[in-house]
What we know:
Layout: H1 2-22, H2 25-38, H3 42-49, H4 55-65, H5 72-83, H6 90-105, E1 107-114, H7 120-134, E2 137-144, E3 151-156, E4 159-164, H8 165-177
Parallel strand pairs: 1-2
Antiparallel strand pairs: 1-3, 3-4
Helix pairs in contact: 1-2, 1-6, 2-6, 4-5
Amino acid sequence: MSELSTLARPYAVAAYRRAKETGTTDKWASELSFLSAIMADERLQQAVANPKVRRVALVQSFLDLCEGHLDGEGQNFARLLIQNHRLALIGDIAQMFGQYRADDEGYIDVDVASAYELSAEEQQKLAGTLDGALGKRAKLKVSIDRSLIGGVYIRAGDRVIDASIRGQIERLTKSLWN
């Protein structure tokens, strides 16, 4: 996996620098997300990886598929990735782009799974607490996971806070068996 990150990094850095220069980070993030989503299709991955497919035909077909979703710079970026045999890295590139953006803008994406829906007030209070704990502005993405029974499960980068009833039961079970 680290090899893929190494290959994807220069493209992510270049894309982020260009987005910053032109003040279009939202547009770039959206286009990279779109490219990442369509490259998740297994048939498209096979076509891109097939050495028998001519690059010129692949570029034209791919750009036709993306019509209306990419501007000129996005098309050029996709063209570059195809010609350099790096289109399969678009998911890693999009993820790194998002991380560079978050670091630069001083926030961190936080995934919060809750057993029940959190009110706006609860989300604000949780975000404020996480801001202090993480040293960055927490940008919450809240989802509901009924299997937690109660409480929350929080993932911020490589940090995990399991304050769920399910997590407490699992820890209790482990401590009883050890």
